[in-house]
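can u do me a favor
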């Protein structure tokens, strides 16, 4: 099981790279949609989740939870990692 801090670090790094942001620009409780992620960014998140943490994330997670925060996503990945 991946620790929350490890998950948060990797996901934050990916988002910062994708959106050309500084790490301090991300707030754990900010909804992901505020980052103006496009469909490719969400696909990258799903690939990262599978590759790094062994968690299959379906697009429905984001579609059904449009207000999901960075913290909630990382907690989900941490809770479901192998």
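np, heres the sequence
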């Amino acid at each position: 099981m991946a620790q929350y801090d490890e998950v948060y670090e990797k996901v934050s790094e990916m988002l910062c790279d994708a959106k050309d942001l500084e790490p301090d620009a991300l707030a754990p409780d900010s909804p992901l949609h505020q980052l103006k992620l496009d469909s490719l960014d969400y696909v990258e998140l799903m690939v990262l989740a599978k590759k790094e943490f062994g968690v299959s994330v379906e697009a429905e997670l984001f579609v059904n939870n449009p207000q999901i925060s960075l913290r909630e996503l990382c907690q989900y990945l941490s809770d479901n990692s192998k």
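The domain at 4-80 is CATH 1.10.1200.10 (Non-ribosomal Peptide Synthetase Peptidyl Carrier Protein; Chain A). hope that helps!!
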